[in-house]
Amino acid sequence: MDTKKNILLQPWAHSFEEVSNAFRTDRLKGLDHSQVSAMRKKHGLNRLREAKKKSIGQILFAQFKNLIVILLAAAAVLSFVQHDTIEGIAILAVIFINAAIGFLMELKAVRSMEALHQMERVTAKVRRAGKVQEVAARNLVPGDIILLEGGDIVSADMRILTAAKLQVDESVLTGESLPVTKKTEPIEPNASIGDRTNMLFKGTSVTRGSGEAVVVAIGMETELGKISDLVQTAEDETTPLEKRLDMLARKLLWVTLGLIVIIALTGTFIGGQEIKHVIEMAIALAVAAIPEGLPIVATLALARGMLRMAKRNALVNELAAVETLGGVSVICTDKTGTLTENKMTVTELVFSDQRVKIGPINNQGTADFSIDGQVINAGENNRTQKLLEVGVLCNNASLNKSDGNEIKGIGDPLEVAFLVAAQKAGIDYEKVNLDYPEQTEDAFDSDTKKMATFNKKESGYWVAVKGAMEVILADSTTLMTADGSEPMTEPWRQYWQEKNLQLAEKGYRVLAFAMKHADTTDADPYDGLEFIGLGVMEDPARQDVKEAIEQCRSAGIRTVMITGDHPKTAASIAASIRLSGDEFQDAIIGKDIIVAEDMSPEDEERYRNASVFARVSPKQKLDLIAVHQNAGAVVAMTGDGVNDAPALKKADIGIAMGRRGTQVAQEAADMVLKDDAFSTIIVAVEQGRIIFENIRKFVVYLLSCNLSEVMVVFAASLVSAPLPLLPLQILFLNLVTDVFPALALGAGKGSSGIMKQKPRSSDEPILPVEGWFSIVGYGALMSVAVLVAFWIGFRTLGLDEQGARTISFLTLAFAQLWHIFNMRGKRTHWADNEVVNNKFVWAAIVFCSLLLVVSVYTPMARVLDLTNPGLSGWLLVLVASAMVCAIGQVLRVFTEKKD
Fold first, then answer.
1. At CA 430, angle to CA 428 and CA 433, rounded to 5?
2. Minimal CB count within 10 Å: which of 376, 503, 581, 621?
3. Rounded to whole angstroms, how far apart are CA atoms 873 and 888?
4. Distance between alpha carbon 656 and the CA centroid of its chain, in Å?
5. How many CB atoms lie within 10 A of CB 836?
6. In 359-508, beta strands by DSSP E
7. Rounded Cα–Cα distance for residues 661 and 639 (Å)
8. Closest CA relative to residue 114, chosen from 205, 51, 45, 203
9. DSSP codes, 39-54
10. How far is the C-alpha of 767 from the C-alpha of 249, rounded, in Å?
11. Active site residues
12. Which of 559, 525, 550 is CA-nearest to residue 453?
């Protein structure tokens, strides 16, 4: 690789002179107009490629891409061919009702790329032809010299040329919770994005200082552009529910086609029946075999689950994702803001002989300060008071007044953290600044790593100093102890160095504080300091996270942290929330992760067993998700930044944060947490499991009802008997006595202890083997009851064909209604279970019973070819139908005793 090409690919590894020369740009003049024109022709405009929007038509069309819907459409066409117009229209109505429900619930399509384009509508100050001018960000080209200052949005990827106290917020790209201090020196070629401290990245923002930089990449060539490309190319995973329903539909397709062929052959060649009668029989079988209500019931059950989750702060974008949540076996989670508070907090003050712990803020705006678990009065602890006062005086941040526990700060997060700590101790930072007004300041510098302020007092000045521990320690000649001041001896220096190292290894941020008195502002602020102690900061874990992680563990769900933050910080937070149980795990660093194409089975196994990953790139997040998916896991991924969007889309369930999440992340996700709480995921998983349990129940219910219809028609065809049920009657049953009870089952609250069960396998079908046995058994039981009632109607009651068919129709309808009580959970009491206690079940039975009475005694009877069965007929219907539930309950008792 030639030198110039290497510089263009890895500008951070080369000096700024080499980078400027590679782009043939003069640092003092910038590019001239001809160079800008040439660059624009070569690289185009500085904008991201637009993704095609999902149109309303595409959303609507997607509702019809279902095998069961296709089967129904075929049955409708066949009905129209046979001139059964009413029947054909009824089937089409079923199709369009289902499509309308799904369409309305999924109208909110993914618009992630629109959010990315919002980040481009900014301007930039650029030096061209020796003049500084403001241009639209889209017009920048590689080689442009950009001038930046606090508050600017970085509009392209750039190599820094000069930096004056330059700090940049890169959290949207890296997940790093603190602004990054920038420098100009080259760094190692294989540095991750978070470690490229001499680079600026498109979409980030300057929080402090100023600088100049040369543009090295624009548009899709930037790191943001690469993420944009990953969002577009990351495949939307088909949800497990969609896969299961499709598998079920395929099985039903073959069963239906097989039955039609058998009926056609037996009816034509064995029974000698007319072709018209055979076709009528085939249509009846097709309508009976296809569970018309299944798409509607599944859609409405998921929609209800979606609304139920919304009340619990979990907004789900796609219906199928509701059930998929119940199958989640791995949660890959970001650290910053998901597991942590996403704000730096002073948690401890370390002195020569004491460690003062600082608790969370309470409703009074203060907090508990404690030593060895014993609460102390912070105002009466001299060193605590002095350290926090120095933290207030040597500070350029401010706090917004707010109600409750929420405190918002303006300025450097570290400085805000010490203002909050002072408030917790009851120190009014504004009063302290009035009592000791600042006269002059030696500003913080990334080279000296320290800062000092001269603050006026009655006589002379109070010098407040803070900075890196090793720097402040070197400047200190005395140490503040509980008994006063004593010399800073070599043993004391070694003590503080060891303390600092211990804290750094645990991932904490540490600042040292010192003070002195001066007679004049001309004095050296750092000469002869009195060392007070250390302020320990962290982005603490959210209070509810530890319990939520434990709930995940008991539910058989693994939690994996994948963050762009520092490895030590990630490992420390993971340990504090017991992410890996009692086991401590160091973070696997992104630069050590092998690319997907080169991973061996051993590598994949190692990554699957790891719980903490740090300094991970967006592409590596995709690879890690794929590692778990390849092993059969259903993966949920949480995130809030632009860098998380591709992984959110790749995961089986993408979960974005609602409060602080970027729009990019929210639109790429399947679910958004309104409260940003990890614990809300557990609530959503529980609802997902309940929904799947309910889906399994109503699928068994619907298919057993449909199978009974198939058996009735099939049995009649074998003996060349009149049809006990007509196609339109079957369709009516499937849309009335099937759908409403099934909907009631879908609204059930689920069984207790569902979160103690292990997650389902991603390839587990909706119906296990025992489910199919139940369907066949219940279907046979109902069909026998109907055929016996049909025969009695003919032979004993002397009814004609229409009257006997009315008996069989009503018997099957009521048998299906009572059959819902056979759907109770395993080992539950027949009179006290989730079905009996479900108010929707009783409402469905009453409503369907009224509809059946109406179908017999209104003009609807003519459409359905029904007649009044009389008192003896109704008695026969009620006795025959009730036997299905009674026998079913007896069989349940015996079979469960054997288990």
1. 110
2. 581
3. 23
4. 5
5. 15
6. 369-371, 374-376, 398-400, 408-410, 438-442, 450-456, 461-467, 476-481, 484-487
7. 7
8. 51
9. HHHHH--S-PPPPPP-
10. 12
11. 334
12. 525
Question: Which of residues 596 and 69 earns the better pLDDT score?
Answer: 596
- Structure confidence by residue, pLDDT tens digits, 784-805: 999 999 999 988 888 999 999 9
What is the token pair recorded at 513? 């504080």
Tracing tokens 């068994």 back to the chain, one arrives at 700
Domain range for residue 191?
A: 3-50+114-233
Phi-psi label, residue 536: left if phi above 0, alpha if psi -120 to 50, beta otherwise: beta
Any residues with CB less than 8 A from the CB of 643 and at least 6 apart, and which?
172, 173, 174, 175, 227, 564, 617, 618, 621
Q: Which amino acid is at 549?
A: I
| Whether 227 and 361 share a structural domain | no
Residues 612-652: tens digit of each pLDDT: 998 888 788 889 999 999 998 999 998 877 778 788 888 98
One-letter amino acid of 380: E
What's the one-letter identity of residue 470?
E
Domain final position from 522, 538, 554: 538
Radius of gyration of the chain (CA): 36
Q: Are 225 and 355 part of one and the same domain?
A: no
Q: Which residue reads 């009846």 in tokens?
A: 284
Rounded distance between C-alpha atoms, residue 323 and residue 692, angstroms: 6
Q: Return all residues near 806 (Cβ < 8 A) that are at least 6 apart.
A: 799, 856, 866, 867, 868, 869, 873
DSSP state letter for 610: -
- What is the phi/psi pair of residue 463, to 5°? -95, 120
Q: Facing residues of 126 across strands? A: 133, 146
Is the residue at 858 inside a domain? no
Q: How far apart are CA 476 and CA 455, in angstroms?
A: 19
Per-residue pLDDT tens digits for 335-365 = 877 788 778 899 999 999 999 999 988 877 7
pTM here is 0.68
Report angle CA 456, 459, 461 to the nearest 5 degrees.
Answer: 35
Q: Is the pLDDT of residue 238 over 60?
A: no
3-state secondary structure at position 524 = coil
Please name the residues in contact with 21: beta carbons below 8 A apart, sequence gap of 6 or more. Answer: none
Q: Does residue 464 fall inside a structural domain?
A: yes
Using an 8 Å Cβ cutoff, are 418 and 359 in contact?
A: no
Domain count, the chain: 2
Question: How many CB atoms are located within 10 Å of the residue 459 CB?
Answer: 7
Domain boundary residue, one of 538, 560, 591: 538
Over the stretch 562-589, which tens digit does the pLDDT of each residue have?
987 778 888 888 888 888 887 778 889 9
- Please give, one letter per residue, the 3-state secondary structure of 209-261: EEEEEEEEECHHHCHHHHHHHHHHHCCCCCCHHHHHHHHHHHHHHHHHHHHHH
Angle at 744 between CA 740 and CA 748, to 5 degrees: 165
